[in-house]
Fold this sequence. Notes:
Elements: E1 3-6, H1 21-30, H2 32-49, E2 55-61, H3 75-84, H4 87-90, H5 96-103, H6 123-144, E3 148-151, E4 157-158, E5 165-166, E6 180-184, E7 196-197, H7 199-214, E8 221-226, E9 240-241, H8 246-260, E10 272-273, E11 290-299, E12 302-318, E13 332-341, E14 347-355, E15 360-368, E16 374-382, E17 386-393, E18 398-406, E19 409-410, H9 425-435, E20 444-445, H10 447-453, E21 456-458, E22 464-473, E23 480-487, E24 496-502, E25 505-512, E26 515-522, H11 525-528, E27 532-539, E28 561-567
Parallel strand pairs: 1-2, 2-3, 3-6, 6-8, 7-9
Antiparallel strand pairs: 4-5, 10-19, 11-12, 12-17, 12-18, 13-16, 13-18, 14-15, 14-17, 20-28, 21-22, 22-27, 23-26, 23-28, 24-25, 24-27
Helix pairs in contact: 1-2, 7-8, 8-9
Amino acid sequence: xxxxxxxxxxxxxxxxxxxxxxxxxxxxxxxxxxxxxxxxxxxxxxxxxxxxxxxxxxxxxxxxxxxxxxxxxxxxxxxxxxxxxxxxxxxxxxxxxxxxxxxxxxxxxxxxxxxxxxxxxxxxxxxxxxxxxxxxxxxxxxxxxxxxxxxxxxxxxxxxxxxxxxxxxxxxxxxxxxxxxxxxxxxxxxxxxxxxxxxxxxxxxxxxxxxxxxxxxxxxxxxxxxxxxxxxxxxxxxxxxxxxxxxxxxxxxxxxxxxxxxxxxxxxxxxxxxxxxxxxxxxxxxxxxxxxxxxxxxxxxxxxxxxxxxxxxxxxxxxxxxxxxxxxxxxxxxxxxxxxxxxxxxxxxxxxxxxxxxxxxxxxxxxxxxxxxxxxxxxxxxxxxxxxxxxxxxxxxxxxxxxxxxxxxxxxxxxxxxxxxxxxxxxxxxxxxxxxxxxxxxxxxxxxxxxxxxxxxxxxxxxxxxxxxxxxxxxxxxxxxxxxxxxxxxxxxxxxxxxxxxxxxxxxxxxxxxxxxxxxxxxxxxxxxxxxxxxxxxxxxxxxxxxxxxxxxxxxxxxxxxxxxxxx
Length: 568
């Protein structure tokens, strides 16, 4: 199985992550020690992942560097962040007069300019800087981790003018010709007024998305979040695909994804609870918890907690998601965990939620009566943003485990929370099979095996686009990659350049002319050790056959006819 890594660092919700997300972004931009830690972190992941033949690539995400958060902060925070992130320095490409005009405020010094408020007419300046920030960070990070890509912001941001949006196309080619990662949601390019979309309209917007990205880059496109279904309450106005249209949409997405991308991923295979507990199953021992008269319990390598008589269990919960006031009487938290008696005697757990003002906003008493695990559920807990959960054992010793506190079940899996397949599951499995190779990779492909292989970018008659890819098997003693291609002798004046990469590493480029061409490239020492190699072949130009043959009706844009390729 091939592995793709999403590399997180700035956005970390671990129990012991300090500083928090926003401060870590600032420190990566301004603190030399944190910058060095970031690069050391990338180097370590690169060193570990590169040991494995099944590692494809890693990627950062724009979401982990969500600088737009600062546009919602106070003027003091926005001015400080503008200084340390480099935004004020970036603005020196504009005159103070231009900036003052866009902000609607007179500035006499760049050091006084804050990050604009989110609704400010100047917000597009900050988006420009954000794009440059990401592009620069990516270039520096790739020097440490060459096989690193980035998930780019595929949608556009609104401005205070409802007819104007700020798009981020300048980041689409930020990976230096490697893979670029994008995401999809039916909301992209839609009305987003709480409406339901047909499968045809949703497929049209998917096609438009990949074409827009492709217009900015020749990099391979990988779709890491194929979020064709989403029930996030905060985005209830987002356009969704009509439930009865989901299977049809996935079927219509198949040829688009197969042609335009190297694959896709789901955000979740199964619907998940948005659990706010940290270390809810005690797999990191007692990290994140405060306990009295309680000890870690390990049975057959599975961790849980022994909560003895008069034992106390606490965790501080911070709910970092903004919930509009209209949801506070509609949405509630649910507390879920399992418990069992140690000796079979019944016990009672007192549960209290104390908010940051010290007020008890919810209280419950639950009984645990058997030596077999029981699932305990407490519902209708009011939403709170900052509070402590108190669980006190008033009876005999208990074992407790698998704590969950959630206000929604995220329904973007192909299986429900109980593991049952959804109606569109078969369509997803069919989509997966379309990406699966029909046979194991060969060391060398001739004309006939090329037809069977169905490489990306190669038509049935062997004509290729300006990018083709696939897999070849590497055998001990084989040291060269060979590419054989052909152009009709009548194509006088044809001239093109072909470049070859194996597993993301360039192994050379060469000119090709009319007639038969046989190109050979040496494998690197690392490539010689691998059993299978992912090849990428690209050309500088495309041509129409009618350019060289007046009688041709072929209007395709092509580069050459593939005759053979492989490792020899």
